[in-house]
Amino acid sequence: MLKKITLQNYRNYKNLSLDLGERTILFGNNAQGKTNILESIYLLCTLKSFRSKDVSLIGENETFTSIEGEADKKLKLVIQNIDENIKKTALKNGVKIKGPEFLKSFLAVIFSPEDVELIKASPGARRRHLDILLCKLDPMYTEALIDFKRTLLQRNALLKNIKYKRATESDLEIWDKGFLELGNFIIKKRKEFIELINKNIDVFYKKISGTDEVVRISYVTGYENIFLEDALKKALSYDIICGTTGVGPHRDDIRFKKEGKDIREFGSRGEFRTVILALKLC
Question: What is the pTM of this model?
Answer without folding.
Answer: 0.82
